[in-house]
Structure formats: structure tokens, C-alpha cells
Amino acid sequence: MCERITLMTVIFIVLSLPGMFSQTSCSNCEEHSFCTCSKKGFYHIPQVPFSALGLDLSLNNIEMIDQGDLEAYTELLELNLHKSKLNVICSHPFKSQNHLEFLDLSDNHLTNLSSSWFENLLFLPHLNILGNNYTTLGSNPIFHTLANLRILKFGNPHLQKLEKHVLYGLDSLTKIEFYCSNLKAYKNGSLHPNKPLSAVTIRNALTTPGNIHITSSILYDVSHPSTAMVVLDFLLTDNISVLPLWEVCNAGVKKNHFLKWNSKSRLIYLEFDNVELQGDGQWYGNATHTLLETIHIRKIYITKLFNFSLLKVFPFDNIHKLSIVECNVFVVHWLCYGRGTIPHLNTLNISQNFLRSIGEISQLVFQFKKLTSLDLSKNNFNDIPENCGWPLNLTFLNLSSTKLYQVTPYLPQSLNILDLTDNDLTTFFPFSTFPNLIELKLEITLFIQRNTLNMFAKSDLSRYMRLQSLEAGQNNFVCSCEFVTFLQCDVENFVTLTDACDSPLTFQGQKIKSIQMSIFVCHMIPAISILCIETIVVFFLCGFTCYKLYILWYLKMTWAWLQAKHKSAVSRNTNVIYDAFVSYSDHDSEWVEELLVPELEKAESSFALCLHKRNFQPGHWILDNIIDSIEKSHCTLFVLSEHFVMSEWCRYELDFAHFHIFDENNDSVVLILLEPIDKKSIPKRFCKLRKVMNSKTYLEWPTEEDMRAEFWHNLKAALRRDKS
Q: Are residues 28 and 149 in the same domain?
């Protein structure tokens, strides 16, 4: 047993023995091994399954925890002993609870805290010791073993002194909740964490003259720009009592919540956030607040709305900013219409109130002559009626999320900023319907994001020559050629817009500024016309080039040569059986048949000649016969004349002889000029033949008969030489 058990405790335990053993086990355990044993009248730790993960023993009569009471429950993750009348906890009571994540010892009667309680809770993230009877904290480092503790709740009405060791060793701490209603002494830096906390809650902080410096020191230690500050039950009695709050302001805390606070001071700012107001609304102390400048009301519910007099104590003569957000329409009418004129009001926010008539709202705000900013967002207006009157100085109007499907000309003439975000606009509102705005040439900023716009054109913007900014993102933009060109080129004169396309699919999600539209998409007919003209010109140039360079002829002859050789490769006899293949025109056949053939074939040493009329194979392709005859002949004898040059088949024979010369790499050509012929009449593409005519002596048929004997002699000599 613990050494600190008092005599009274022993007597109480003895007297309570019958009841202590009346209930020894708790069977109210769920499938997930969470045992709810609250309000069961237990006098000691009951028996539960050893595999229990959670154990709720709150609101029982367990005055003491001995060393072995929890030893068997090694899997516990959560242990709740809230209001269980604990007086004594022995050393190392949680020795087996290495996995414990939540421990609640709040609202018991513990007068002394011991570090031995927490030595084995190395991974405990949440500890609550609020509302016990200890009077001093921090004289010894109680929590130094809780390296993973993130949430700590401590303090009670009896706590009078805080020492510097309160947060020693708590390197992972993120949130604290502190109760300090009767604190008499505080060492500076006691609550200063090793790193900024994410949230701090202070309850019952005193602001009496004798405790102002303590409250100031506490707020100084815990305040940080990244810390959310919550102050509960804060009493403001005079101007001096507000001084500790300057520590919060000076530290740059961005999130402040002051709940359940009373004030007797002169207010400048008043906020009601998510509260329910009951009764008749009489202000504490019947104070008057002539310096009040700002009122912010959000999610307010007043049980007796029309009998509620809370705001009657606030003179609205000096109000500059009024916000009524997320209240019902009756509260808005009660607060606005019931107050009458507010002469200095310049900012009014009545968003999120289910308002339906923008005409009535315009009549309400028309009386606020100095109003410059009006927020009507997140209401249900649908359209803007004709009977709208607006303050002359209104420069900012927020109509976002009001379900508008069109914008009419009946908007304030003095606007600098108009927000139409998140509505149902399908077309860019017509600037031509705002003649007054055009005349004034206002520098205006327009917000039309998240509507259902498809596109807008230069004419929609050109009327606002001093348009400064247009935000039109997240619409259903159809990226046509005109729209993309307008935004990429022309729109720079009016506004800078960055957005993405919704359609067509090829451009969906792409930034408009980065889209490259093809000329065939934007200018199809001109582009196709130009392409056709270019194609025709190219074909014409290619044809002209081929004609000049005889490319088609070369291709044609090559194909014919290859095809002829391929078709007759098997059957063709390539042995030379003729002395000469005679190529001549039909117009010269009389000379060939009556003079040339008899002279050569009937001579003493006769020559075997190949003539197309008698030696070509019937039924064979003519080109094949030409190639075959040239290949079977020792040489080719051309009888040149003007008729020869004009003959199509003679030209073919010249062509294939030309190819044969290259193929066999020989000069087996004999030329006879039957009549004078210009060398230039032979096509230039027959470079080899032209070279032969230029390099070799050709025979000319003499017109004088006495010279013909020499001609025949020279011809036979040429054939015989070639034959040898």
C-alpha cells in the first residue's frame, strides 16, 4: 500500500468494504474492446478483458489507484478517470500502459502530483489533470518523461503558484489549456514553450489591479502569430483591465477568440460569433458605448427577436462597419430597418442571409450616404430589378454566389470593383447597357469567375477603355480562333487574362495564352486554296525540270530496260549470231533492202545482218525484240537520216543501243549518214552516241556513183574490224 495513506482514509476504506466488493467486474465492453464503466459505483478498478483498448471509469468512487490495479491491462490506449473521487495514486500506477494515448485525471481530489506516475508513458500524447487540488506546479519537472505529449490540460481554482519547470521536457507540445482563477505568483517564462504552440486556451484569467501583471506575463509567454488564442471567462472592468490583451496584439496573434467575457469598459469593436442570445438583451451595468465603430454579427440566434433590446444601448451614430453574416432574414430586417439611418456607415456586409430581393436591399442602403463597400454575396437574388437606388459613393459591390443569370443596367454608377463570381451568367454582360459607366470612364475591376461563359469578344471590352482588371477564370470557354486570337493579341490593350479552355477536347485544360492554333483550323478555305496553288506550282516546276533534264526519259528507259531484261532473261540466247543489227527508218527501207543488204550479205565474205522486218520474233514485245537483237549482234549499224531522227521506233533503238553501250562497256556502233544531217538534231540525252559521232569517223553515202565503191569498201572494213 502507499506510504501516504492517512488515518482517515484507512477508516473510510474499512467502513466502505462491504460496498467495495459488491461489484468487482465490468461487463459493458464493446466489440472493439472499449469498456464503458462510468457511473457504476465502483470503489476500485474493476475487472475487464485483458485485451481492452479503452476503459472509462469516470463518475465512480475510486479513491485510490494501487500499483497492481492496472498491471494486467497492457493494451490500453485510453483511460478515463474523470470525477472518480481520486485522493491517492501510488508510485508507478501505469507501469504496464506503455501504449497509452489518452489519460484523464481531471476533477478529482489530487493534492500532490508525482513524476513517477508518468515515467512509463513514453508515448502518451494527451494528458488532462484539470480541476484537482494541487496548489503549486513546476517546482519539480513533473512531465519531463512525456517527450511525445502534444496536448496538456492543467490548473484548478486552488492553483496559486507556477514555477519554471512546468513545460520542461515537453518538446512535442502543441496545445495547452490552463485554468488560473486564483493564481498569486507566476515565474516569467513558466509557460514559454520550446516552439510556438498551435492553440492555447486560458480560463478565468484575472484582470484585477493586483493580477494584471500575472495575466500579462502569461499572455506574453504563450502568444505567437501562428498560435490560436482562446480566452474564456474574461472580465473587463475598466481601461486598465484591457492592458493584458495588448500582449496578444503585440505578438501578432492572428486568431483570437474571447468567449464568455463581461465588459464595463467603453467598446470600439463588438463581435457576436455563433451565439444564442436569450432574455431581453439588457447590457451588463447599463453601460453606454459611444465610441463603438465596428459590429460583426455571425450566426446569431435571438430567442425573443422583437423584444430584444441589446443593441438599443449602442448608439449607431459612430458605426463605420456593420457585418451581419449567416443570420436569418428577420434578424437582418430587425437590425437594419429597425435602426434607421447610420450616418457614418461606410462598410456593410449582409452576406449569407437567404435574402431574395435586391430591390429592397438597394432601398435600405440608399439612406447610407457614405456607404462605399457593400457585400451581398451568397444570397438568392436571381436578377436585378429596375427599381434599384444606390448610394452615390458606392465603389465596391459583391454579388458573388447570388444565382444571377443575367446582369441588367441597374447597377451603381460609381463602382470601381464589381464581383460576379460563381453565378449563372451565360453571356458576357452587355457593356452597352451601362451608358453612365461609359461616360464616367471608371477604372473598374471585374470578377466573373466560375460562371458558364463560353466566350466574349473585343467589342465587349472596348467600351471600357480604362478597364484595369478582368478575372474570368473557371468558365466554360470555347477556344475558337477568334476568341484565342483576341485573348492572345488584342486583349492586352484592356486586361491581362490567364485561363484554360473547356472545349474543344484538343485544347481542353490548356492555357489560352499557350495555345497554338493551326492555320488550317482558323483559315481553312484560304489555307487550302494556297496549298493547292502551291502544289500546282510545285508540280509544274517539277514537270518543267524533268522536261529540261530528261528525267522522265531516263526513268522510262531504265524501267523498260530492266523489265525487258527480266522478262526475257530465261529464254533469251545471248550468243552473238549477227554481225550487225541494222537500225533504220521505214522511209529508208528501200535503200537498205535494195542496196545495203545485197551488198553486205552477197559479198565474198558475207555479213549476217539483223533486220526488224525479217528477224524480229512474231508475238514478242517490240522492246524485247529490240534488246534481244542488239544483244545478239556484234555491232549496231545506224542508217541516219532526217526520217530516222523523226521515227519513234528508231529513237527506241537509239535509246537501247545507248543503254547497251553502257551495259557492255563497248563502242560497237557504226554510223551511216544517208543524207546530210545536223548533229544537233540527235537528242542531247544520248551523250554516248553524240560522243561516238564526235570521236569516230562516220560514213556518208555519196551521191556520185564513182565514189560508192569506196563507201562499200570502207563499210565492210568497219564491220570486219569490229567483227575481228
A: yes
Radius of gyration for the alpha carbons in the chain, expressed in angstroms and rounded: 55
Which tens digit of pLDDT belongs to each residue from 469-497?
A: 777 777 777 777 767 776 666 665 555 55
Q: Are residues 598 and 696 in the same domain?
A: yes
Strands (E) in 366-426, as ranges, are 373-375, 396-398, 417-419
pLDDT confidence tier of residue 282, bands split at 50, 70 and 90: low
Is this structure's pTM higher than 0.85? no
Lowest mean pLDDT among 416-420, 447-451, 573-577, 708-712: 573-577
- Give me the pLDDT at residue 8, please: 44
Which three-class secondary structure state does DSSP give residue 564?
Answer: helix
CB 448 within 8 A of CB 471: yes
Per-residue model confidence as pLDDT tens digits over 410-433: 778 788 888 988 888 877 664 444
Question: Sign of dihedral through CA atoms 565, 567, 572, 578?
Answer: negative
Strand extents, DSSP E, 243-327: 255-259, 262-263, 269-277, 294-302, 321-325
Asked if residue 231 and residue 89 are part of one domain, the reply reads: yes
Residue 551 inside a domain? The answer is no
Decide which of 262, 294, 327 is a domain's last residue: 262
Reported as a single tens digit per residue, the pLDDT across 118-174 is 998 989 999 999 999 999 998 888 999 999 999 999 999 899 899 888 898 898 999
Residue 386 and residue 245 in one domain = no
89 touches 118 (CB < 8 A): no
The tally of domains found in the chain comes to 3
pLDDT digits (tens, 9 = 90+) for 531-550: 888 889 998 888 887 766 66
The whole-number pLDDT of residue 16 equals: 44
Residues 151 and 13 in one domain: yes
CATH of the domain at 599: 3.40.50.10140
Q: What's 76's domain CATH number? A: 3.80.10.10
The DSSP bridge pattern shows strands 269-277 and 294-302 to be parallel
In angstroms, what CA-CA distances link 43 with 23, 321, 349? Answer: 8, 59, 58
- Does residue 320 sit within a domain? no
pLDDT of residue 499: 65
- The reply to whether 13 and 86 lie within a common domain is yes
Beta strand spans in 455-602 (E): 469-471, 578-583
Reported in sequence order, the residue ranges of 244-392 that DSSP labels E, i.e. its strands, are 255-259, 262-263, 269-277, 294-302, 321-325, 347-349, 373-375
Angle between helices 551-567 and 524-549 (to 10 degrees): 70
What span, in angstroms and rounded, lies between the C-alpha atoms of 507 and 502? 7
In a domain, 269, yes or no: no
What domain range is 92 assigned to?
Answer: 7-262
Question: From the CB of residue 154, how many other CB atoms can be counted at a distance below 10 Å?
Answer: 25
> Pick from 486, 517, 548: which residue ends a domain?
517
Is there a domain that residue 300 lies in?
Answer: no
